[in-house]
Design brief:
mainly alpha; two-stranded antiparallel sheet; 24 helices; globular
Length: 506
């Protein structure tokens, strides 16, 4: 009783004891589990290195082909024995939450790093190759390559291919292909934002992968039928389905036929829709779309963004309304889906248009899609909570209001996760923007570039170039990785207690 009385009288002591109690409950990530899971991912990366290697060999790009083949061989040699690592006890084989997050964060970092050496075959320096590889696997689309029309087709295919498998997600590929432990596979998928039903994690991953492959084939054929050559259609379709934005031309979509631009825009919209939702369409038909507020929000956000951009273009630049609408809708789709294609130079747009684009890129597409941003569901949660707060001012104090989005109840954990992500986003954007300003870059283009990188959008205000300061290129790399894994996964990797806290008791 006296001890409790002292604790109640001393808030500092109460906080200290709470912190000590929390620290005793923390469990460090087990190195064998993390390495074993990463070993399986290395095997997937080794297999993913083969298609561009074959393309390079067939195109007589000997240096690139050799580097890709050597990279695949090294990944296989390292990944096979590491993938055999298992916990010391069979009952400890399930993966912890911090282990799953660490694996996800490290997977994208490793996927970018292993492609740096092959990309230097295109004449890039190490930092430029790192930015290009990071932009590829995170499906961002920022690039330092120039003269793309004269670039080796094998290099262009490698860039598009990285975006394609980065769009589906390395973790999803690993679960679909080689991971069999249900609990670990489920936990790994949950780090990517997947909402799993009662179906097995591996079955879920396979159905999502099947939809992704089907959409890819449809996209390639559709773009090809608009009049592009087969290879050019492939190089545009793969980034479009991944909402990546790498284009085989310095002008992106400018100069392409209108039918091609419209087709690529439709593909981007389809990819910004939740892939699990698309997987339900063959079985449930259009009924699956009935209670999907994120889909309605996506279409509404695209329409609002496109109209705002069109009005600004018509009023400030004097474009004819029909041309302004065409440009507005192409840019609006690209920004809202975080694809990164453009029909005009973003640097030439007025500040108001750039502000609209930054807002749209930050919001992004649907959960479980290839689009980036904070995701529309989180915006809907905030809007719904604000709506309920306003309603409470006009009803009886004891009335109970149900907070939900569509048919989904808003749990306190969802609100916490939403506010947590938004706070982390704001901190990353501010720190990155200050780094650009400290090195003398102009304010608005700097903010635009940072937002584009963190949202994995890829639209550029002109700062991302070979001449950009190397330190700022590394900042953009970090932003792209933070955005792809929604920040927390990389923070877990950098958090010392992840590795130094107590291990599980045997």
């Amino acid at each position: 009783l006296n001890a409790n009385h002292l604790i109640e009288r001393s808030p500092g002591r109460r906080v200290a004891m709470t912190e000590r109690a929390a620290s005793t409950l923390m469990r460090a990530a087990r190195l064998r589990v993390v390495l074993g899971t990463l070993g399986r991912l290395l095997l997937v990366l080794a297999a993913l290195s083969l298609p561009p290697a074959l393309m390079a060999w067939s195109d007589a790009s000997i240096e690139l082909a050799f580097r890709l083949t050597a990279t695949a061989s090294a990944l296989l040699v390292v990944g096979w024995p590491v993938s055999r690592l298992r916990p010391l006890r069979a009952e400890d084989s399930d993966i912890q939450w911090n282990e799953a997050l660490a694996v996800t964060g490290l997977a994208f970092l490793i996927a970018a790093l292993v492609m740096v050496w092959p990309l230097t075959a295109a004449g890039l320096g190490m930092i430029d190759a790192l930015l290009e590889a990071t932009s590829g696997v995170t499906t961002t689309g920022l690039t330092v390559l120039r003269g793309l029309e004269q670039t080796d087709p094998a290099v262009l295919f490698l860039r598009a291919w990285m975006q394609w498998y980065g769009g589906l997600g390395i973790a999803v590929l690993a679960v679909a292909l080689i991971m069999r432990h249900h609990a670990s596979a489920r936990r790994l998928l949950e780090t990517t934002g997947e909402r799993l039903t009662d179906a097995g994690a591996r079955g879920h991953a396979r159905s999502v992968a099947a939809v992704y492959f089907a959409l890819t084939l449809i996209a390639i054929v559709a773009v090809w039928m608009t009049g592009l050559a087969p290879l050019e259609a492939l190089l545009y379709a793969l980034p479009a389905i991944a909402t990546g934005g790498f284009a085989p031309s310095d002008q992106s979509l400018a100069g392409l036929p209108g039918a091609t631009v419209a087709t690529l825009s439709l593909i981007s919209v389809a990819s910004a829709v939740s892939l699990p939702l698309s997987a339900r369409l063959p079985h449930r038909g259009l009924r699956a779309l009935k209670h999907e507020p994120e889909l309605i929000a996506l279409l509404g956000a695209i329409l609002i963004t496109a109209l705002l951009l069109s009005v600004i273009a018509a009023l400030s630049s004097g474009l004819p309304w029909l041309q302004a609408l065409g440009q507005g809708f192409a840019l609006g789709v690209s920004a809202q889906t975080d694809t990164g294609f453009s029909t005009t130079e973003v640097a030439d747009l007025p500040a108001a248009s750039q502000g609209v684009l930054m807002t749209s890129m930050s919001i992004g597409g649907c959960t479980g899609s290839t689009a980036g941003g904070i995701k529309l569901i989180r915006l809907l949660i905030i809007m719904r909570l604000v709506q309920l707060a306003l309603r409470r001012t006009a009803i009886a104090e004891r009335a109970v209001l149900q907070a939900q989005v569509g048919d989904t109840r808003i749990e306190p954990s969802m609100v916490t996760a939403t506010l947590q992500l938004m706070a982390l986003w704001a901190m990353v954007l501010l720190a990155s923007w200050l780094a650009f300003l400290a090195l003398g870059q102009p304010p608005l283009p700097s903010l635009f570039e940072v937002v584009s990188a963190t949202a994995n959008a890829g639209l550029s205000a002109g700062l991302t170039s070979p001449e950009l300061h190397p330190a700022l290129k590394l900042v953009l790399c970090a932003d792209m990785l933070f955005g792809r894994v929604e920040i927390l996964a990389l923070l877990v990797v950098l958090y010392p207690p992840t590795w130094l806290a107590r291990k599980r008791n045997p």
